[in-house]
Design goal:
This protein has 371 residues and is of the alpha/beta class. 39% of the residues lie in helices and 15% in strands. It is built from 13 helices and nine strands. An eight-stranded parallel β-barrel has the order 1-2-3-4-5-6-8-9, surrounded by five helices. Helix 10 links the parallel strand 5 and strand 6. Helix 7 runs parallel beside helix 9. The protein is globular. The two termini are 15 Å apart. It binds (3S,4R)-3-hydroxy-2-oxopiperidin-4-yl beta-D-xylopyranoside. The site of (3S,4R)-3-hydroxy-2-oxopiperidin-4-yl beta-D-xylopyranoside has 6 residues, from loops.
Length: 371
C-alpha cells in the first residue's frame, strides 16, 4: 500500500524531540469551527523520573496523562490490604503540577485484578469488595482525576452471554455488574466523568463487527436504564495485519455511539506493524497513513473530545512485549507504532496526529505531509 506520507519529505524534515511541535494545542483560540481536542499519552512515573528527555517530551506534547499501570488494582493492592499508592500519587502530582488533566485507568479490569480479589469475588460474590476498592481509589484521587475508565474491556467476541465478556465480575455478579459499577462510582465520585473503555472496534471483520454491535447494545441498555455514564473510550490499537481501515465502518460506529448521547475519547492509540523487514521509512509511512486514515474520520465526529496514545515513544511501547519472542534487542526490530522513536525523535506518525488534531496549524507544521 502506498501511503500519503513520503519518506523523502520526512528525511528532509529532520527532527529532534525538542523541536517537534506539540500535539496538544495549548491555545484557547480557534480560527475555524473545529473543536479543541486534548492530546495525551499513557505514562509511567518510573520512566518519567529516570529519563529527563522523556519527561520533557510529556510536558511539551501532552495536556492529558493516563497512568499506564499505576492505577490498576493489582498495582495498587497486589496483596490484600497492603497498598502501594506511591507511583500513582507521584504521577498524578507530576500531571497536576504541570497543568495536565488525568484520565483514570482503570477501576475494573479482569486482567489487572489481583489474584486474591478474583478468588474472593468468585467465592463470595460480595459487592462490598468492589465498593471498598472504589471507595479507596476514587476517594484518594477524586480531586485530580477528571475521567475514569470505570470498566475496562467488558465486551465479548460473540453474541453469547448477551455480548458480555465472561470475566471474573460477570461470573460473580452477572451482566448487572457493569451497571452496578457505574452507580457505585457515581456515588463516590459525583463530579468525575465516568466511562467504559474497550478495544477491537476498528476493522472490517466478523469478530470486530460483532464487538461493535455488542458494545452499542450494552451502552444503549445502560442509557435506557438511566445509568450514570458520560463517556466511552475507544482504545484504537490499530493493526496493519488487519488493515487497511475501512473509514466508513469507523465513521458509522462513532456516529452510532455519539447518537447515544455520550462523549468519546480515543484512549490507547498505537499501531502494530505487519512487516518489520521493510525499510524503516516505508514502515513509518505505513503506520502514519493508517493513523491519518483513522483520525480523519474519528475527528470529523464532534463527540470525540481527545486522543491519547498508549505511550509516546517506541522505547516503552507495550507492543514490544507482545512480539513473538518478547522485546527485541535491536532497535530496528522494535515495533514503530508510537509518535516518537526509541531515541525520542518524532516520526511521520507525529506529523499525522498533528495534522489531524491541529488542522489550523501553520503550514510549516504540516511540512511532513507529502503530496
Ligand atoms: C497494558 C500495559 O501497557 C502493560 O504495561 C501492562 O503490562 C498490561 O496492560 N488495553 C488496556 C491497557 O486497556 O490497560 C493495557 O495496558 C493495554 C491493552
Amino acid at each position: 500500500m502506498l501511503s500519503t506520507f513520503s519518506a523523502v519529505a520526512w528525511a528532509a524534515g529532520g527532527a529532534s524531540s525538542a523541536g517537534a511541535r506539540s500535539l496538544a494545542s495549548k491555545t484557547t483560540t480557534r480560527t475555524t469551527g473545529s473543536p479543541q481536542r486534548y492530546f495525551g499519552a499513557a505514562a509511567r512515573i518510573d520512566q518519567i523520573s529516570s529519563e529527563p528527555g522523556l519527561a520533557e517530551l510529556f510536558l511539551r506534547q501532552c495536556t492529558c496523562i493516563t497512568p499506564e499501570i499505576h492505577l490498576k488494582w493489582d498495582a495498587l493492592e497486589w496483596e490484600e490490604g497492603r497498598f502501594s499508592f506511591e507511583p500513582a500519587d507521584d504521577l498524578v502530582r507530576f500531571a497536576v503540577k504541570h497543568g495536565m488533566s488525568v484520565r483514570g485507568h482503570t477501576l475494573l479490569w479482569d486482567q489487572s485484578t489481583p489474584r486474591w480479589a478474583k478468588k474472593r469475588l468468585k467465592r463470595e460474590r460480595d459487592w462490598s469488595l468492589i465498593k471498598r476498592h472504589f471507595d479507596i481509589v476514587l476517594g484518594r484521587y477524586a480531586d485530580h482525576v477528571s475521567e475514569w475508565d470505570v470498566i475496562n474491556e467488558p465486551v465479548g467476541d460473540d453474541g453469547s452471554d448477551g455480548g458480555f465478556r465472561r470475566n471474573t465480575f460477570f461470573e460473580a455478579f452477572g451482566p448487572s455488574y457493569v451497571e452496578r459499577a457505574l452507580r457505585t462510582a457515581r456515588e463516590r465520585a459525583p463530579r468525575a466523568r465516568l466511562a467504559i473503555n474497550d478495544y477491537g472496534f476498528d476493522y472490517d471483520n466478523p469478530v470486530e463487527e460483532k464487538r461493535r454491535t455488542n458494545f452499542l447494545k450494552m451502552i444503549e441498555t445502560l442509557r435506557r436504564a438511566d445509568v450514570p455514564i458520560d463517556s466511552v473510550g475507544v482504545q484504537a490499537h490499530l493493526d496493519l495485519s488487519k488493515g487497511p481501515l475501512n473509514q466508513r465502518i469507523v465513521e458509522n460506529f462513532l456516529n452510532d455511539l455519539a447518537g447515544l448521547g455520550l462523549d468519546i475519547a480515543i484512549t490507547e492509540l498505537d499501531v502494530k506493524e505487519r512487516d518489520l523487514r521493510a525499510p524503516i521509512p516505508v514502515r513509518d509511512a505505513r503506520v502514519a497513513a493508517e493513523v491519518q486514515s483513522y483520525l480523519e474520520v474519528a475527528l470529523a465526529q464532534p463527540a470525540v473530545r481527545g486522543v491519547i496514545t498508549w505511550g509516546l515513544s517506541d522505547r516503552h511501547s507495550w507492543l514490544q512485549d507482545q512480539m513473538p519472542g518478547g522485546r527485541p534487542k535491536k532497535l530496528e526490530k522494535l515495533n514503530r507504532g508510537l509518535p516518537f522513536d526509541a531515541e525520542l525523535r518524532p516520526k511521520p506518525l507525529h506529523g499525522a496526529i498533528l495534522a489531524a488534531l491541529q488542522p489550523d496549524a501553520p503550514a510549516g507544521a504540516l511540512a511532513l505531509r507529502a503530496r
